[in-house]
Structures are given as structure tokens and as C-alpha cells.
Give the backbone structure.
Amino acid sequence: MNRFVSLLLTGLICLVALGQFVQVITRYVLEVPVMGLEESLLYPTLWLYVLGAVNASRENTHIRANVLEIFLKTKRQLVLLAIVGEVISLAVGGWLTYWAWDFTKYSLRVWKESPTLYIPTFYVDVALLSGLVLMMLYTAWHLVKHIRSLSAEEEHNHG
């Protein structure tokens, strides 16, 4: 799974970089812009962004500003803080996922197309729902791991 995710993200970033390179060469060097290239790059760019966030959620490497960690002394306190953070993340993420579900249903119903190439925008709109669902699954998984580590620590201390 890690290998697949790594290859997918690498492929997407190479595709976006190649597209931007072609755009720069054709527009500024050859002075012949390629119609629709920017529009077509929107799809892999947005999927790259969303899947990058999912990957950070999977690896639990999101950027955090945990100021409270400075004041906490024990491992138990840090785990409790992590549990509170995961619960808040699930609450906010659940609300955003609900909103993304409504947006996805709307996108499917109206079936908009991009202005130049007539590519259905649903394929880029669904990235948001897909990403949020995956992030919520990984957040729940990390919450369970934190709760288990807290339970194991308490059994160790009392046993």
C-alpha cells in the first residue's frame, strides 16, 4: 500500500510538473499557448493536493501547533491530548464530509463540464469527498491506536 501511494503521488506530481513545463515552453518560448492545458492540469493537481493530505493523515504527519505539549509532563497526558485532538478532528471532519457529500451529489446532478475541453468536473469534484472519507478513516484508526496505547499503559501500571 505504501509503495502504491508513493508511486501514485510521484506520478501525479511528475504529470503536473511536465504539464507546467510544456505550458511555459509553448507559451513563453514558442509563443504558442496550448489551449486547454491549464484546464486539464486542474484534475491531477487537485487529486495530488487531496491525496497528499490523505497521505499525511495516513502517516499522522500533518503540521500541528501543539502548544499544550510544552506544559504536559507525562506520556499519559500526551496521549490524552492526542485523543482529544483526534475526537475534535473527527467531529470537524465529519461535518466537512457531510458537506462534501452534498456537494458531490450536486456535482453529479448538474454534471458540469470544463469550459474548453468539456471534461466533466465531477471527476475533480469527487476528489474532495474521497479525500475526506479516507482522512476520517485514518483519523479514526489513529484514535483507536491512542486509546489502545492508553489502555495498555493503564494495565501495565495497575498490573
User: Anything to note?
Assistant: The mean pLDDT is 93.
